[in-house]
Automatic annotation (TrEMBL):
Domain of life from the UniProt record: Eukaryota
Stored Pfam families: HET (PF06985), Het-6_barrel (PF26639)
Domain (Heterokaryon incompatibility): residue spans on this chain: 14-188
Protein's name in the database: Heterokaryon incompatibility domain-containing protein
InterPro entries per record: HET (IPR010730), HetReg/Transcr_Mod (IPR052895)
Source organism of the structure: Recurvomyces mirabilis
C-alpha cells in the first residue's frame, strides 16, 4: 500500500473498485505490505479476484484506503470520492460469483456464458425492432421514452415468446447480484471513464448490462411475472445515468432528482442516502467544494442531515417545489420527531403527485424567500391562510366500475353546493366538482382546459364505461376504443386515479381535493414559492405540520395572491415543523 496525491503531475494511474460490502461482521485476513490485516470477507474476495499473479496492479479500495473506524476520516474522504472515481483510468465492478459453474449459465444441453446470453438477447431485440446495428439499438433504448418503448412492444409482441423467455431467463441471475441494490455503487459506476464487470471469471462492460436491462424492460408485458422485480435495481442505476447526463437549471434541482430515487436503494446507515450521492452531485454540478448544508458529518442525526439538504434545495431553486413529494401516512403526519416538510423521510407513496402540478401557479410566481431558524427541524415560509377545514368526505376506496363512481360524485357535488366563496363565484357547482374530482388534470396527466363539466356529466350518465373494470395504467387508458364514450371513459380514469384523495369544505366556502389524511380544523393556505395550495395542521404554540398539497378550483393561477396584494395585505410568516 502506498500514498499518492490526486494533484500530482503526472497524475497517478490506478483503478478503483466497486462492490457490495455484504455482512460487515464476517471478516477475512489479507496482508498489506506484509502485515496481516482483517477486512470484510467481501473486500478480500474482490482483491483475490482482481489481483494479477505475476505483476502488480494499482487498485483503490475503500475498505483499506479509508479508516472505517475513524468518523473524521470517513467524513473527509467522502469529499474526495468524486475526484477519486473520475481520475481513475478504469473501475472494476465485482458482481460476485454465479451460482452455476463459475463463468457460465445453464442453457439446456450445454452451458452458455453470460456474455453469449447477453449478446443473444440484444440481437433478438434488434431483429424484432428491425434495427441494423447495435448503435441504432442503443440510441433507440437510451434516448427513447420508456413509455413509448413499452407501447411499441405491446403493439408488436414477439413472434416466439418462449424463445424470448428462455433468453431472458439466461441473463436474470446476474441482475440478482446484491451490487445492483446498493446506493454507493451508483456514483462509483457513473463517474469513472470506463467500467468492467466481473461475474465469476467473466468480464462484461457495464454498458452492455444496462442495454440488456432496457431490452428486458421493453418486453415487460411479454415476460413471466416477477421479471421486472429482478431487474428493477439495475433499472434504477440506469435512471441515475440519465439524471447525471441531464442539464439542470440549478444544483437544487439536481440534488432533488438524486434524492428522489435514493429510497429504492440499500444503505447501511440512513445518512448514506445523501452522502452516497455527493460525489455524483459534485461532479454533475461542477463544484469543487460541498456547500455547508451538505458537508458530511456522521455524528449528526439523519433527520437533521436531511432537513439541511432539503433547505439547500429550497434555497437553490428559490421554490418549495420539493413539497410535491410529501405524502404522509396516518402516523407520520402527527410524528413531531420528524419535520413534516421533508418528503425524503417518508416511504414511497403510491399516490404520486398531483400530476400536471407544474402547470399550476397558485402563488402567482412569487419566489421562496429563505428564512433561517436556530431550530434545525423548522422551516419559515411566507403565505396566506385562507380558511379552516370544516368538513371532509370519507376516504374512498378505488371504485371497480364506472357506476360506483356515482357515489363519490354525488357526495362531492352536495359538498360543492355549499361553496359560495367569491373566488369560486361565477362557476357552477357542476364545473367546480368536475375539475376538483380529477385535481384539474386529464387522463394523461395534463391540465384540463376544455369543457370539463360536460365530459364529467357524460361520464356520470354512463354505467358501461368499464365493462371489464377500470383501465390499469396510462397505456390502457390511451387505447380506450374510439366512440361516444372515449372522453367519458378517460375522464372517469382520471377521477379513479385521484382517489383516495379526499374532497373537503372550508369555513370560507372553499371546496377542494385534499391529501388522504386531511381532517377537520386543518388550514387551507397558499405558500409563496409553491405552485399548489396546501393543507396545514396547527400545532398549539409551535406552528404547523405540512399535511400535503391540494387542488382548489378558482385559486390555482394566483388569484388569491393577486387579490391580497391589490388589497395591500401582507403575507403571514408561517413556521412549518
Amino acid at each position: 500500500m502506498r500514498t499518492v496525491s490526486l494533484k500530482s503531475n503526472p497524475p497517478p494511474k490506478f483503478e478503483t473498485t466497486s462492490y457490495a460490502w455484504g455482512d460487515a461482521s464476517i471478516h477475512d485476513q489479507i496482508f498489506v505490505n506484509g502485515i496481516p490485516m482483517m477486512v470484510t470477507a467481501s473486500s478480500a474476495a474482490v482483491l483475490r479476484r482482481c489481483r494479477y499473479q505475476h505483476s502488480t496492479r494499482a487498485i483503490w479500495i475503500d475498505a483499506i484506503c479509508i479508516d472505517q473506524s475513524e468518523v473524521g476520516e470517513r467524513n473527509q474522504q467522502l469529499t474526495l470520492m468524486a475526484s477519486i472515481y473520475r481520475q481513475c483510468w478504469r473501475n472494476i465492478i465485482y458482481l460476485g460469483e454465479p451460482a452455476p459453474p463459475v463463468g457460465s449459465l445453464q442453457g439446456g444441453a450445454q452451458d452458455i456464458t453470460l456474455t453469449r446470453a447477453l449478446e443473444d438477447l440484444i440481437q433478438y431485440t434488434m431483429r424484432h425492432l428491425n434495427l441494423e446495428s447495435r448503435a441504432a439499438l442503443e440510441k433507440y433504448m437510451w434516448v427513447g421514452n420508456i413509455a413509448d418503448i413499452f407501447a411499441q412492444s405491446a403493439r408488436h409482441p414477439p413472434k416466439n415468446p418462449q424463445d424470448l423467455a428462455d433468453l431472458v431467463k439466461q441473463v436474470l441471475p446476474v441482475f440478482r447480484a446484491s451490487w445492483f441494490r446498493r446506493l454507493w455503487v451508483i456514483q462509483e459506476s457513473i463517474l469513472p471513464p470506463e467500467n468492467i464487470c466481473c461475474w465469476g471469471t467473466e468480464t462484461i462492460s457495464l454498458q452492455t448490462l444496462l442495454l440488456a436491462v432496457r431490452c428486458i424492460m421493453s418486453w415487460e408485458e411479454n415476460l413471466p411475472k416477477g421479471t421486472d422485480k429482478v431487474i428493477y435495481a439495475a433499472y434504477v442505476l440506469h435512471t441515475y445515468t440519465v439524471i447525471y447526463a441531464e442539464p439542470w437549471a440549478n444544483n437544487g434541482e439536481l440534488l432533488d432528482a438524486l434524492l428522489t430515487f435514493s429510497d429504492h436503494c440499500e444503505v447501511t446507515v440512513p445518512h448514506d442516502r445523501l452522502y452516497g450521492l455527493l460525489g455524483l452531485f459534485q461532479a454533475a454540478g461542477s463544484q469543487d467544494e460541498l456547500p455547508v448544508l451538505l458537508r458530511p458529518d456522521y455524528s449528526r442525526s439523519w433527520i437533521v442531515v436531511l432537513a439541511d439538504a432539503t433547505k439547500y434545495i429550497f434555497q437553490e431553486r428559490r421554490s418549495l417545489h420539493v413539497l410535491n413529494g410529501v405524502e404522509h401516512s396516518k402516523t407520520s403526519i402527527n410524528d413531531l420527531a420528524q419535520p413534516s416538510w421533508v418528503g425524503y423521510l417518508l416511504e414511497s407513496s403510491s399516490l404520486g403527485q398531483l400530476d400536471g402540478s407544474q402547470k399550476f401557479n397558485a402563488s402567482n410566481g412569487s419566489p421562496y424567500q429563505p428564512h433561517f431558524l436556530e431550530r434545525p427541524n423548522e422551516l419559515k415560509v411566507c403565505g396566506y391562510t385562507l380558511g379552516v377545514v370544516s368538513e371532509v368526505a370519507l376516504t374512498q376506496e378505488k371504485p371497480t366500475s364506472s357506476a360506483s363512481l356515482l357515489k363519490t360524485y354525488h357526495t362531492a357535488y352536495d359538498m360543492a353546493l355549499r361553496s359560495s366563496n367569491d373566488d369560486q363565484a361565477g362557476t357552477s357547482a357542476n364545473e367546480v366538482v368536475a375539475y376538483t374530482l380529477v385535481g384539474g388534470k386529464t387522463w394523461d396527466r395534463q391540465r384540463f382546459t376544455g369543457n370539463c363539466h360536460e365530459i364529467c356529466e357524460s361520464a356520470m350518465a354512463r354505467a358501461d364505461l368499464w365493462p371489464n373494470g377500470p383501465p390499469l395504467g396510462l397505456a390502457a387508458a390511451a387505447e380506450v376504443p374510439e366512440g361516444t364514450n372515449q372522453e367519458a371513459a378517460r375522464y372517469a380514469y382520471a377521477m379513479w386515479e385521484a382517489i383516495p384523495r379526499r374532497t373537503f369544505f372550508c369555513t370560507d366556502s372553499f371546496f377542494g381535493l385534499g391529501p388522504p389524511y386531511i381532517s377537520a380544523n386543518d388550514v387551507l393556505a397558499v405558500l409563496l414559492g409553491y405552485h399548489l395550495p396546501v393543507i396545514l395542521r396547527p400545532v398549539d404554540g409551535h406552528g404547523y405540520r405540512f399535511v400535503g398539497p391540494c387542488y382548489v378550483h378558482g385559486i390555482m393561477d394566483g388569484e388569491i395572491v393577486i387579490k391580497r396584494e391589490a388589497d395591500n395585505i401582507l403575507p403571514e410568516l408561517l413556521v412549518l415543523i
